[in-house]
Amino acid sequence: MIPKPAFLMKDPKNQNGSEKINSVTSDVISLLPQVRGTYRENADLSKTTWFRSGGPAQVLFKPADVDDLQSFLKNKPANIPVEILGVGSNLLVRDGGIPGVVIRLGRGFTNVAIHGDFIDIGAGMLDGQLANLAADEGFEGLEFLAGIPGTIGGALRMNAGCYGREIKDIIEGAFVIDPKGNLHHLTVNEMDYSYRHCGVPKHWIFVGARFKISKVNENKGNGEIKARMMKLLGEREETQPTKERTGGSTFANPEGKSAWKLIDAAGCRGLKHGGAMVSEKHCNFLINFDNATSSDLEELGDMVKEKVLNHSGVKLRWEIQKVGDFLESSSLRKKFKKAA
Ligand SMILES: Cc1cc2nc3c(=O)[nH]c(=O)nc-3n(C[C@H](O)[C@H](O)[C@H](O)COP(=O)(O)OP(=O)(O)OC[C@H]3O[C@@H](n4cnc5c(N)ncnc54)[C@H](O)[C@@H]3O)c2cc1C
């Protein structure tokens, strides 16, 4: 456990907890601790995830700030499961929805503190916002984040990266809360990063990160940084279906190979299943082109996996994270009992 750094302190606009306590009660909400953030029952996640598919969260919890999140985790009944989501840009929520509590970090997790050679950023901030902020301040090296549409929390969990750089290359470490509500600081070496993998235990929640920064020469200004960023964004527009309902790269690249080349060679470009299809533009991207269910998307991904295995003998690994229940086995109506 560590003392809380200033950028993770209580949200000053949200100190007066009692006004904000959610008065809505339901079977599950009535079992949860009082919070200063908000609880929403049966919250439709398909409105916010990039695929625009999938079932609801039994309860969606948006903590007011780090204190609120810690207090929730310390006091919630142990038998109620918790999932953390970012903005769902690498995520498939299954059609039966997610039982228990889904946590999403909002405004209380977007603080910024610049000190010396570091910049501390809350995990709710978008990667693109950080890239813009760094460019405005004349800090270089974070340009590649501009086109990754997730949050800093999602990037820390996925070790997001592109154009030869990954999140692990640009952070000193991260602030993370364990399932009992304790805050830790982990250095990048302690996080056991590798390609699209982070070794921090699954249910630990990132609340912020410390980025290493280097300022360009004052005389040069930030024009070059912004130009580099625009170039990368342009390249992405040309090669990826960025305006579609997609979940980004479906499969991680196998060692020394490109997933898209294997998928193309197996004849899957443009392959359709229900309302889902393999993108014509970039065949490692699945697209919800016509009211696809999450099952359509997952089944199509599994079909692609099988065709690639049969064609080239390579077993692809899903990069997209799959969460929640299948519709048939949905336990959304599962009742949680008060702990004895
Ligand atoms: C058009 C498009 C382009 C993309 N391009 C790239 C790219 O170039 N490079 C790349 O790496 N990715 C890319 N992605 C994938 C995606 O943007 C990244 O993986 C991103 O980091 C996911 O962040 P998120 O906030 O959307 O997380 P989500 O998709 O919501 O969640 C992903 C995982 O992170 C976990 N998670 C989220 N927040 C936290 C937190 N605070 N603490 C702990 N765990 C958390 C979730 O539980 C889940 O397991 C792209 C996606 C799209 C749609």
How would you characterize this protein structure?
The structure is a single chain. With about 350 residues, this protein is α+β, with helices and mostly antiparallel strands. It has 3 domains: about 5-105, 2-Layer Sandwich (Uridine Diphospho-n-acetylenolpyruvylglucosamine Reductase, domain 2), CATH 3.30.43.10; about 110-230, Uridine Diphospho-n-acetylenolpyruvylglucosamine Reductase, domain 3, CATH 3.30.465.10; about 250-320, Alpha-Beta Complex (Uridine Diphospho-n-acetylenolpyruvylglucosamine Reductase, domain 1), CATH 3.90.78. The protein is about 20% helix and about 25% strand. The protein has 7 helices and 21 strands. Strands 6-7-13-11-12 form a 5-stranded antiparallel β-sheet, covered by helices on one side. A 4-stranded mixed β-sheet has the order 1-2-5-3, with no helix packed on it. It has a 4-stranded antiparallel β-sheet with strand order 15-19-18-17. β17 (about 270-275) and β18 (about 275-280) form a beta hairpin. α3 runs antiparallel to α5. The chain starts with 16 loop residues before the first helix and ends in a 17-residue tail after the last strand. The model is unreliable at about 15-25 (pLDDT under 50). The chain binds flavin-adenine dinucleotide. The site of flavin-adenine dinucleotide has 31 residues, from β3, α4, β9, β13 and β15.
Q: Which helices and strands, and how do they pair?
A:
Layout: H1 17-20, E1 38-43, E2 57-62, H2 66-75, E3 82-85, E4 91-93, E5 98-104, E6 112-115, E7 118-122, H3 127-137, E8 139-140, H4 152-158, E9 161-162, E10 165-166, E11 171-177, E12 183-187, E13 205-212, E14 214-215, H5 223-239, E15 246-249, E16 251-252, H6 259-265, E17 272-273, E18 276-278, E19 285-288, H7 294-312, E20 317-318, E21 321-323
The structure holds flavin-adenine dinucleotide (FAD).
